[in-house]
Q: What sequence folds into this?
């Protein structure tokens, strides 16, 4: 049973470009969460999704950031017009319905140059 | 807004030594989770504790939850280099989002 799969592992973007980060949850998991880890800071919650629904996006920046979890395919975190301050490790986690136990992916390290 | 403070921020010890790291919350935990994160990887769940005063053991790791459910400690006996990593505490809250502390970076030297 494969774990939470994130790709790419590393992503380099120039300022102003778009970044698309993908996350495939564990088999049987219907809840997906995105977290950001900035250098020298802890993990910060961004968004919680179920299939085709955004449940809680209270941690998402108001502009340039969006997330989706379509009926088919992986969850996508999209960052438009990236800036240097977006450089961070972005982690996806998944859990089965009704459980508080998370499984995290290995993350995508975004570098904006 | 809940604040989780972890101490110490950094800890470097020799193989075989014992150590304790701490997690304190500004408010009562809903349920407390401890994670370990290795460089270049995501956090891995070690344990979940819910009941005040609860003690859980995982091989050489002992997790203690304070009676008032506002603090916790992680004790490692006879540390090994493989224990090296960032130890994070987190509260699950009521909205299925985790609030993390900033972590304790542990280095165990051979």
A:
């Amino acid at each position: 049973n494969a774990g939470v799969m994130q790709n790419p592992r590393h992503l380099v973007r120039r300022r102003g470009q778009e970044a698309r980060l993908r996350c495939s949850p564990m088999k049987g998991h219907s809840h997906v969460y995105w977290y950001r880890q900035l250098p020298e800071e802890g993990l910060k919650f961004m968004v919680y999704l179920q299939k085709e629904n955004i449940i809680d996006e209270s941690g998402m920046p108001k502009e340039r950031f969006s997330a989706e979890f379509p009926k088919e395919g992986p969850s996508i975190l999209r960052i438009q017009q990236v800036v240097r301050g977006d450089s961070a490790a972005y982690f996806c986690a998944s859990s089965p319905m009704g459980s508080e136990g998370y499984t995290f992916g290995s993350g995508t390290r975004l570098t904006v140059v | 807004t809940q604040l989780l403070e972890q101490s110490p921020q950094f800890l470097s010890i020799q193989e075989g030594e014992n150590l304790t790291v701490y997690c304190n919350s500004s408010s009562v935990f809903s349920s407390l989770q401890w994670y370990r994160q290795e460089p270049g990887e995501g956090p891995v769940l070690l344990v979940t504790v819910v009941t005040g005063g609860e003690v859980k053991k995982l091989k050489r790791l002992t997790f203690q939850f304070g009676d008032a459910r506002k603090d916790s400690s992680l004790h490692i006996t006879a540390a090994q280099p493989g224990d090296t990593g960032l130890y994070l505490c987190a509260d699950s809250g009521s909205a299925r989002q985790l609030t993390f502390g900033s972590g304790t970076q542990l280095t165990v030297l051979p």
Q: What stands out?
A: The mean pLDDT of chain A is 92. Chain A is about 0% helix and 50% strand. Residues 64 and 80 of chain A are 5 Å apart (CA to CA).
